[in-house]
Amino acid sequence: MSELIKGGAFLLGPVDENSVFTPEDFDDMHMMIKKTCVDFMKNQVEPRIDEIEEMAEGVTTGLLREAGELGLLSSDIPEEYGGEESDKITTNIIAECSSLSGGSYATAFGAHTGIGTLPIVFFGTEEQKKKYLPGLASGEKIASYALTEPEAGSDALNCKTKAVLSDDGKHYILNGAKQYITNAAWADVIVTYAKIDGERFTAFIVDADTEGVSIDPEEKKMGIKGSSTCSVILENARVPVENMLWEEGKGHQVAFNILNIGRFKLGAACVGGGKKVIEFAAEYALQRVQFQQAIAQFNIIKNKFADMAMLIYMMESMVYRIAGMIDEKLEEVKESGADTSDIVKAIQEYAIECSISKVFCSEKMDQIADEGVQIFGGYGYGQEYPAERSYRDSRINRIFEGTNEVNRMLIPGTLLRKAMKNEVPFMEAVMGLGGTLGKLKEAEIPGSTPEREEFYVNNMKTLFLLAAGNAAQKYTENITNEQEILCRLADMAMEVFAAESGLLRAKKMMAKGESEESKLAMSMTSCFIHEMVPKMEGWAREVIAGTLEGEEAGKAYSGIRLLTRYEPINTFAPKREIADVVYESKKYFLDKV
């Protein structure tokens, strides 16, 4: 694997568009699975949304079993245990499509197939896999993941649940309480965590019918009301020693690596949610008449639809790029005869990109859901229209899988740790800034697309290095205390990754021949990048103002001015064209199913 394909290395130099996976690379199998999932959501799940939201007994679990019969629960499970053993592209497709009919079903589905099942797939013993995975693949058994506690949310290692080995050495006796656990009321299998003797954080598989396991009543929630969210109480629960997951004291590696996978899959689910909003919002806007014309024809409404489509395009480009990267890494590891430790390292490789997917997509989904309500106007505030539910359901995504604040700090923090271990040449790139800036003084902004957009993206990478490099040199190991700076650096890294993902995809489409779709992709990319540059300038100035003073700050500001030179374009006209294509398609127009 080349240096620039390592996790986080996209920030250090150009990336070849042929090295990234895009939705246009879906093969026939991917498209068949996508159609199967879309049809299932449209024909089986959507007609029962009201029942799901009311938590009618047996409805959601019954739908999960139907999904299991279609193979939609088992894409990550090896064939020998009843699964499909598909690639992460397929996993992403299913995660995306499973959010097309509301957040409640998607939440139950995601918790079961992701954080509930994957710990056993990646870390289970042969006996554990044989015992649990076939039932999880079929939907006969429902999975849950119990990590959060009243005093241990983002700080998972502050876990208070204890495990003590029984006198006969055959069981671990667990005592503690887990909070906000998805699927808790329906679960047959609970993956949970406890500290052995109050010290060694360890993962366990707990059968829900174990004596001493009880489930509290359902939480009353703002959104995803049709999903099950309860506390799990463990009172002298006797868990067989063979149900310890992986190794004693290594529960943190299980937890954090499973969360990495959950984060990029959550990004895919946000893509599906965004596509659904643009679909029902377009249908409404084309029908709703005010001032003698459909509101869709007002340019300010067109601007909203163009922005929604642009954000979905960036999100979609990002999540499938990450899926392709993880697939390549896991395949490389498997071919070398991987053990569990190798798989852990493979998943950890793209922790930065997984956090980017989670934060960027959850926040852009919120923007899309918000605009959906606005387009509906007063009707959007009423429960009889879908905009209201999408708005409420979307909000949880910024809390799921580690809060966005924690993930923001992880993005630059992980990059700096990788740099200290010489896993990425971050400091070398920072040391080379002088030469890079010197060359830019003579450079002219290209006058045509995509060279112009490529110029801007590469400058934004250098801008990130300027800001991050100065902060790292000023604060050294104490930078972890400079949370505002870390969050601003995360914003910069996310914006660059999104812009580059969209640009690489558009270039790849154009290389196959100019088409209406490739022109639209480049148009959305160009609008996004031109709006990105002034944001990046403001963020970089904030970081420098919080880092340097006097002459040093002045030199940094000179570099910022050089890097953020850009020539504004009229984005209004292309956005009107993008909106017109949305109206013509009555959906996100690059979606093939």
List keywords for this structure.
two-stranded antiparallel ribbon, alpha+beta, eight-stranded mixed sheet, single chain, 593 residues, 10 strands, 57% helix, Butyryl-CoA Dehydrogenase, subunit A, domain 3
Report what the structure shows.
- The chain has a domain at 421-585: Butyryl-CoA Dehydrogenase, subunit A, domain 3 (Up-down Bundle).
- Helix content is 57%, strand content 10%.
- The protein has helices at 28-45, 49-53, 59-69, 88-97, 103-116, 118-123, 126-138, 251-287, 299-335, 340-349, 351-376, 386-394, 404-420, 426-431, 433-440, 451-475, 483-511, 516-545, 550-563, 572-585, and strands at residues 143-146, 162-165, 171-182, 189-196, 200-207, 213-215, 229-240, 244-245, 289-290, 293-294.
- Strands 1, 2, 3, 4, 5, 6, 7 and 8 form an eight-stranded mixed beta sheet that branches. Strands 9-10 form a two-stranded antiparallel ribbon.
- Strand 4 and strand 5 form a beta hairpin.
- Helix 8 (251-287) runs parallel beside helix 11 (351-376), helix 11 runs antiparallel to helix 12 and helix 17 (483-511) packs antiparallel against helix 18 (516-545).
